[in-house]
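Fold this: AAA family ATPase
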Amino acid sequence: MRNFVIISGCSGGGKSSILAELDRRGHATVPEPGRRIVEEETSSGGSALPWSDLGAFLRRALVLSREDVATATAQTGWVFFDRGLLDAASGLAKLTGEWPDLGDVRFHPKVFLTPPWPEIYVQDAARRHGLEQATEEYRRLLRDYPALGYQAVELPRMPVADRADLILRELESRM
């Protein structure tokens, strides 16, 4: 699944804006599982939320991410994931001390990470944690992706269109 590309990194670092730009350019995109789960759980009165039952939230994110991967296999061309399977696995490993079985799912070897960007970071109903927690998460992902055999490409703080251009150039270049 070398056409499956992960955009991950710090919460509030601009991932969703980059995905929107790539979608606008005609690329297939998969929205962040966490935000979808928060929306569903909040509207149904559920408790699988990161601030009330992190384990249930992360397990649900793993299931949803696997479904996203299965659905995306029908896509041709680049498919960009806003976080997903490996982020959920990393979070669950931090929580439980054990990595969940990810099977044989592999993504493009380059993973694009948005660093902490205090000037654009905002909390909202689905992002209740502060920048300090988001930065800790970023550091964990910066460590975990290479440990899983991926090349972490940190995206510079620049306009969204320029970030999208950089990602597309990186994907076309050799490893």
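The chain has a mean pLDDT of 87. The domain at 4-172 is CATH 3.40.50.300 (Rossmann fold).
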